[in-house]
Amino acid sequence: MLLSHSTRMFEMVTSFNRSMSDHLTLRSLSFNSSGAASHCKSWVSRSFHGLLVIGSLVSFLLAMGCGYLYVFPSFSQAIHGSGISKSNSSTETCNVFHGSWVQDYSYPLYNSSQCPFVERGFNCLANGRKDRDYLKWRWKPKNCDIPRFNVHVVLEKLRGKRVVLVGDSMSRTQWESLICLLMTGVEDKKSVYEVNGQKITKQIRFLGVRFSSFNFTIEFYRSVFLVQSGWVPKNAPKRVKSTLRLDKLDDINKQWINSDVLIFNTGQWWNPGKIFSMGCYFQVGKSLKLGMSINNAFRVALNTWASWVETMVNMNRTQVFFRTFEASHWSGQSHRFCKVTRRPMLRTRGKDRSPFSAIISEVVRKMKVPVTVLHVTPMGAYRSDAHIGTWSDTPSVPDCSHWCLPGVPDMWNEIIFSYLLAGGGLSLQ
């Protein structure tokens, strides 16, 4: 096709050159009335024909170039074609996290009851949820499109790689989501297994699933604060039962390095009920910080994490992400009531903002190495319909923090791998 198109363009250029040559030759012949100009005419003729040859060659090269562009997209278009692409209708810079949820009846991308790595507590349909509308939504950025998750492309990109997720139960939910998405492209389901034969539990500190046919692992490390829990210092008040050592990263941090994709989150445990009510206070060095607020402590902990990334992670190999705080939809003055809606909310009602998310963005912005912030807070703010509610393995304890699977975490994974595919974050070397 390229050859024939280029040939046609070359014939058009040659024809044009011939017609111009004939036209100019006729004009030159009209000057032959004087024999004194014979020598000059001969020199002009030779020079002119030389220029025609050069012009024809240049025209041919231009024709070949045009033919190539006609058949093949530009390199930039080819890259964006497999990643996050801008809409044709807008030339604005795309913010992937500025958008809305649109109905898409091709979703969900997997059946949680057919995925052995989904916790029973996250499988809302299996726990009695009757409506399925919450499964039929896709995130649509305002000025770009997120391509559909191509499981076969992602599986090939992950060959020989190591993906690590670190954080709280929200990170574990994303880990389970990613495994289920990837298993839809694996023929032999038995080739996917937990490396230690362990069942998924809420308290286990490490879970690793190996895709043996593709030689890669998806790992989860439970580290709800990212920093170390410490013993009570000497001479501490009686109310102090434990401490969070804000200047020391979790002691399992060495297991996070040498990964190809490293995804962090924290936030769900940074609240008075999980800290002060449990007799836990903050510590920096040997100093106990009894009056330090949770937000300030969170910032100190994030700076400790940032310093660790800058000094310990090989950024030539590892693509680092930090996911922001996930919106919850508790109601009532005490935030203890959980009402799951049938459809997403039309307005975020302030849930698209979080001081934790702001601190994460601030800390990452000041880092000396590239880290990608996954600002998922606005996305989740609309999804009051997608929480577990009472459809869990403990229905007497409602849950308006965690998400049903399939659900919102699937979109986080779609965005991450669209970004990696578009930016070349996963090397094939």
From TrEMBL:
Keyword Protease: no
Protein's name according to its UniProt entry: Protein trichome berefringence-like 7
PANTHER family with a match to the protein in the record: OS01G0880400 PROTEIN, PROTEIN TRICHOME BIREFRINGENCE-LIKE 9-RELATED
Residues covered by the Trichome birefringence-like C-terminal domain: 146-418
Membrane-spanning ranges: 51-71
Gene source species: Nelumbo nucifera
Any Gene Ontology CC annotation: Golgi apparatus
Keywords linked to the UniProt accession: Membrane, Signal-anchor, Transmembrane, Transmembrane helix
GO molecular function, one term: O-acetyltransferase activity
Keyword Ion transport (UniProt): no
Places the protein is found: Membrane
Family label: Belongs to the PC-esterase family. TBL subfamily.
Domain Trichome birefringence-like N-terminal: 92-145
Highest rank taxon of the organism: Eukaryota
InterPro entries: TBL, TBL_C, TBL_N
